[in-house]
Amino acid sequence: MNKYLLLALALITFVSNGQQPSENIEVWNPPVPVFSQQFDWLQLRSGEWLKGDIISMYEDELEFESEEFNTIIFDWRDVTELRSRFDQQIRFANGEVKEGFLIVQDGHLILISGGSEQHYPLSELLSITSSSDDRKELWDGKISLGIDVNTGNVNQLDYLASARIERRTPFTRFRSDLTYTYSKSTVSDEGKVITDTGRLTSYLDWFYSSKIFFRVFDYEYFTDLQQNIDVRNTIGLSVGYHIVKNKRIQWDVTIGPSYQQTVYRNSTQEKDQKSGVVAFGTLLDYSISSRIDYLFDYQLQFVEENSGKRNSHLKTGFEFEFNNDFELDFSLYFDRVAEPVAPAGTTPPKSNDYRLVLSLGYSF
Which of 114, 132, 150 is the last residue of a domain? Predict the structure, then answer.
């Protein structure tokens, strides 16, 4: 009988607990933060709030920098509220651009400018970029350095230095890349220079739509001791297309006309050669994970035979982030001149040059 009595008491206790008045149950709601004007504010669908800096929003991806979590890219559909502390440049789907303080809330956009509010459907928003020209968030850059010292049977010093800087607005993208490779023998104080190659590229893109852009300025400076090239300047323009562009993959292609002037160090023909160019390029940047990126950058120029006939440049490799600002880069460089011009009294240089480089990079 005791066990039946205990079972009855347990049942009575359970029922009485389940009949507590509902007004005694308190539902907890997360507090709304006090919006300090020192930060931009972001709320996610999960209810979480982040304070930091709005970098940009493009292709339905918001780039946001937090002091605690560094730069994070969010899907735009995961954002429920966004508040800016600086003026933002807002580009709409019809091509119109406006400036003002930004509030995204309840599926619509509020732009505050000159003391007045303007309301827009969120579906019309195409991109967001800070309109303050002196803000560092508009710029992105990286510096890398690789050094290789050989002693013993081979006495040689090799190093590669590279730098990149980029600036993006709702309508434009400017980028400049510099790569310099140098190596010499260390047998004596007057070591022989083995490699001396430099390349500087700069371009300015204007975004016509979400897929099509025009490269209104495209410049390359190139010098190469091995290929007998003292200076090669190329300037042109092209049209580009985003094949894929999302938070993990960027794949662009470009094609267009250019003009090239090549000055050779020493040649049996005229040292100064001029040529028209048809240039083709493709750039693939793939984020394999939050710490590993893969890059494939290939450029091809069709020129006259006296300027090399076909000039190719490839950079491909992996970037391993091991710190918030530092990366380890493993890169392969390939340069090809289909018809090299020989220095006077010597055999022509080989068409292909390869370099495999391990370097340390700092991003800012």
Answer: 132
pTM comes to 0.71
What is the Cα–Cα distance from 232 to 260, expressed in whole angstroms?
A: 7
Distance CA 13, CA 23 (A): 20
Q: Which domain holds residue 359?
A: 139-363
Length of the chain: 364
Which of the listed residues 102, 132, 162 is the one where a domain comes to its end? 132
Q: What does DSSP say about strands 116-121 and 310-321: parallel, antiparallel, or unpaired?
A: unpaired
Do 204 and 350 lie in a common domain?
Answer: yes
pLDDT of res. 329: 93
**Distance in angstroms (rounded) separating the CA atoms of residues 17 and 21:** 10
Please check whether residues 148 and 237 belong to one and the same domain. yes
CA-closest candidate to residue 142, choices 333, 295, 299? 295
84, 210: one domain = no
CATH number of the domain bearing residue 97: 2.30.30
Which region holds residue 205: left if phi is over 0, alpha if psi is between -120 and 50, else beta? beta
Within this chain, do residues 157 and 118 fall inside the same structural domain, yes or no?
no
Q: Centre a 10 Å sphere on the Cβ of residue 71 and count the other Cβ atoms it contains.
A: 15
Q: What are phi and psi of 224, to 5 degrees?
A: -155, 115
The predicted pLDDT at position 221 comes to 97
Residue 154 domain-assigned (yes or no): yes
**Is 211 within the bounds of a domain?**
yes
pLDDT of residue 185: 78
Q: Domain check: are 110 and 148 in the same one?
A: no
- Indicate whether 199 pLDDT > 60: yes
**Is residue 9 in some structural domain?**
no
Residues 6+ apart with CB under 8 A from 337: 227, 308, 309, 310, 311, 349, 351
